[in-house]
Amino acid sequence: MSNQLTRRLELLDNDEHHDLLGQGLRGIERETLRVDAQGQLARTAHPAALGSALTNPQITTDYAEALLEFITPAENDISITLNKLDAIHRFTYAHLGDEMLWSESMPGELPSEEEIDIAWYGKSNIGMLKHVYRRGLALRYGKAMQCIAGIHYNYSLPEKFWQLLSANEGIPEERRKPLRDFQSEGYIATIRNFRRYSWLLMYLFGASPALSKGFLRGRPHNLETLSDDTLFLPYATSLRMSDLGYQNEAQSGLTPHENSLESYVSTLMDAVNRPYPPYAELGTRRDGEWIQLSTNVLQIENEYYSTIRPKRVIRTGERPVQALCRRGVQYIEVRCLDVDPFEPVGISLETGRFLDAFLLFCALDDSPAIDAMEGQVLARNFARTVKEGRKPGLTLTRGEQEVPLQEWAQELIERIRPVAQLLDRQHNDDGVHAASLKVQEAKIANPALTPSARVLDEVRELGSSSAFGLRQSRLHAEYFRESPLMPAEEAMFAEMAEASVAEQAVIEQAQTGSFDAFVAAYNSSTLCGE
């Protein structure tokens, strides 16, 4: 255990500071496709009863019109967050008719590209900006990519936590950085450690070892054939997070090194402003219609598909990087988690408890800067794990050595253990975080217990990835429909939906100026000083 980790654990274990860890926030964003009773992609518009996809704070769409996104409020305990996520599912199911929510990250059988509708957000300039951005994604990556779903885990520690660390780093008060800068650096350091160890999350929670053959649209691949409609890799954990996911040539050289917030922001802003010749050949319009927001490497900074992001809640009209520049990092968004097809809401409480211990470990442990060489090693470790994570004898690169994945994973669990114990002491000594570690240890010792192995067993038995997804979707639909919300909760969600529709109408009625001018202004507002 590093001296920094030991010192910080002792500091936080002090009775005076015990309550700090319970004041952080947890939020979940869950993406899920609407499908019909046979598991085919729903061709219907976003259900009106769910409100406006533009303005409803808890129920929206992501890329495809059929890809719902559920956003929980931020809560102090992940169990409350998951209860909120469960309620969003139940409200949605009450208004889906015969449709269901797809249970997996990778879609089942998809229709032709022309038949996959891009998410629509109304006729306001901001709504059209979101829609045209997705047109650009379809142009650059194909529409099948817009049907991939994941779980995003939003995590923050309270400001008092960062104040405490800053005051106890042994630096004289007059030389300490402003709290905003110290906190931002702390989150960026957390992200660096996440990069070092996120392969462990893919081994423990990856759940997409197989996919429907049609998803690849004829692209070259090295997958093996499981059946007429299913491709797989025998030891894969998460094909969603492999090079078959949101990757392309334009982004291949884009590797923001999170050694400082300034470095991260400047790398993304360079990509947002740097022309990319193949996109320039396509232009921004076709037959008078906008087809992408720009011809640069990235249309907007969110197009950079990262496993984790520093985040700050944005204000009206503000870009994500502007918010980070002006007010610093507020929380981190973990983006690499597959939907768990064995869980109705897509993630278990046990997984959430482990993530809390893992992320706090990343925040407390020493986190040196990552140079370009180490960055390549970390990317390679991650890539090996998503494609071969359960392979007997698989090694990862640690420093100058090749280390067996299982050996390193167990060592990490031992390093995380005192963090889990600290969280349990803060959590009334109920042992839930330590219990989650025990479950993960069992998966390390026996790869057959991992979600990816369990999924592959089921897919083999049924002979089809889509058949497995359909079966789980039906089971989950039955689970939610058997126990609808209480009338007061139903009314609360209905009121939120109605208010969102009214809010969208106000935005559309109040707007002035052309969409062309709006895009030009948005594209030019990329600097931190603006």
From TrEMBL:
GO CC term (a single one): cytosol
Cross-referenced InterPro entries: Gln_synth/guanido_kin_cat_dom, Glu_cys_ligase, Glut_cys_ligase
Keywords, ordered alphabetically: ATP-binding, Glutathione biosynthesis, Ligase, Nucleotide-binding
Enzyme Commission (EC) number: 6.3.2.2
Pathway it works in: Sulfur metabolism; glutathione biosynthesis; glutathione from L-cysteine and L-glutamate: step 1/2
Family: Belongs to the glutamate--cysteine ligase type 1 family. Type 1 subfamily.
Name of the protein in question: Glutamate--cysteine ligase
